[in-house]
Amino acid sequence: MARAELPSRAQVVIVGGGVVGASVAYHLTKRGWTDVVLLERNVLTSGTTWHAAGLVTQARATDGTRKIVQRSLEVFRNLEADTGFSTGFVQTGTLNLAMSQDRWDELRHQATSVRSSGVEAHLLNVDQTLEKYPLLNPDGILGSLYFPYDGRGSATDTTTSLARGAAQRGAKIFENVVVEDVLTRQGRVVGVSTSLGDIEAEYVVNATGMWGREFGARAGVDVPLQALAHYYIVTEAIPGLTRNLPTVKSGDDYAYVKDEAGAIMVGFFEPGSYAWSSRGIPENSGFTQLPEDWDHLWPFYEKMTSRIPILADAGIKLHFCGPESFTPDGLYHLGEAPYLRNYFVAAGFNSVGFLSGPGAGSVLADMIVDGRSPIDLPELDPARVQDHETNRRFLEQRVVETLDVSYEVHWPFQQRTSARPLRRSPLYDRTAAAGAVFGELLGWERANWYAPEGVDKEYRYSFGRQNWFEHSAAEHRAVREEVGLFDTSSFGKLLVQGRDAVTVLQRLSANDVDVEPGRIVYTQWLNEHGGIEADVTITRWDETRFLVLSGPATVNRDLAWIHRHIGPDDFATVTDITGSLAMLSVMGPDSRRLLQPLTDADLSNEAFPFGRSKRIDLGLGYARATRITYVGELGWELLIPIDIAVHVYDTIVEAGAAVNLRHAGYHALNSLRLEKAYRSWGHDISAGDTPLEAGLGFAVKWDKPGGFIGREALQRQREAGVKRRLVQFLLGDPDAILFHDEPISKAGVQVGRVVSAQYGHTLGGSVALGWIEAPSRDHESGWYEAGDFEIEVADERIPAKASLRPLYDPKSERPRS
Question: Number of helices (H) and strands (E), helices first, in the chain?
């Protein structure tokens, strides 16, 4: 290819010629953006696309990723008519088998969760399962979950068809062109440098597959992924084999099975894989095939010959091992990089790139053209990445576990075990000695519950009440009735300071944060469409310093959002000071009685009202005490310098003996906040939801000087009305357990889904927050509360009470007592 053939500029440059990159190009051109260049260092599909098994399955982990696969299905059904080139897609359905009661329980809950996203799924008994797939040995099978609209296709053909469709509309596609660098200026991409010259560009898309981490690092973008060895076997042709049988997934055997051109493919998500080329994927590799390892694979394959006896007599045509990229949390990265404008990531697909790629490319194209995602996808946001997650040694341990557990039973509250412990509160040893059973969130070790003396400090998983249920219930009741102590040090703490700090935060915040020093303000940060980008509290320390308190999972995202909105003329800085301050939350009706003897500060309601923050003496040192709550009770959050954190903790615990102080963990925190209907960003609310829909209109100050980002869009919605609301629910059956993603019905018609849930020990049943949609904007608020609501739990509908106001302490009198 001559240098002159490469354009000197393009609106969008896509790097990577697999199914994802081709899909982005195709969908951009469908949206009318035809000045698109796709660059592939080798040839199209040569990374990992070429050896994809071709399954298209809708049983994804989240509502957003299921909706992406639904978009993929639309592409598979319509692409050939548009481009004239087949995708090879055939609708066969998928059978997920259960060989144990635990697996059957999982499938019952999975049937419920996928239905909340509009996915059709049916639980089948053994006879019905065998009718769908007669080759199965029925021994040990309890039943299956059947997805009738799943299918399979050809990854190579689909990529070719997408690329052809993009080219037909004007996109330019170049193979054997190496992108050596991404060009940036003032925090924004301006082009790429290639082996054949530079291309100016407004947007760059990293769709480089297993090279995504190294390619991202060139532009300072963190993309945590690691290539792992991944196996499948293809038999010789089997005479008389029925074509287009359903795909069979057998989690208990770590395997999937599909027929292919008269033969059978058996693929594996088995434990015991290994990281390949963790120090950097060879840049010149294409169509990579790794060495066979029959000793490793034979025990798994042998189990499948018992499951499908016809395999025992079939010869082996191909034993394939190829690399696939996996991520620490098992979810891919889709969206704009947090610190580099117009740099978009679409990588780390965890061996579901083919089934997700067409839909993911569609969504990413919409993000670029419209400036927002058409689907709420906080779980895929590249801004969720933590610093340690691109560490090679961390990835080698954690990402192998991602593959190891892929086909295991997915338990509620299941904790990862690798690469731990990593991030620890300064009070870690103290809380461990008090019985803490730690969970992990983005590297943080956090006390999820406390085991009393004589109780094993471990999780025993089930789909019912787990072994920690009663212990967490006791912690919950202690906070409601006496006083509880939470170590909340993992919460993010951002110091915004400077002459224009108030100007920046006023521009970001829907609420009014220009308050006197010592006040705390609850607020949302909105995008230009009125969607909630952050849900934070802001404490004004003095005229020029503000503390933004963020969640541990959102602090990096919130930090980037502030950086992005500090203008060139703003004299303001933001610093993450999470690691310099421990945080203890002392909550409950007896919290004042506990803390008052430990300080000379007056903690009375008159001297220290709700919503105030002060630096107080505590024990032998000083801490910042803020009277606020996330549990719905009287209490204080204490920010403590880490050098005296243990002293303050010891002081509180020693004094707590006189008032029955109890340690409490994050499971109790969640059940307490859900009884009070407090929102959690990324679970209940995110960028596709507005404050008016989320019931947070009270935190919007419409007429504050200067307005705020998103005000105009929110005002338009205020005038037009909303037709969806976030509603609190309480199940009528006190024994039923909700988790999330359960469908919500009214008068027998599905109207929404649960987004977060926990057992409410004070309310006496599972309590949840869920989004429901009215038939039109004309419905008054009463529609969202009145009527016969039901929530489906493990394939059974259970009556539920709905409320727009908190079911616990609706007037919020207790925190102000």
Answer: 17, 38
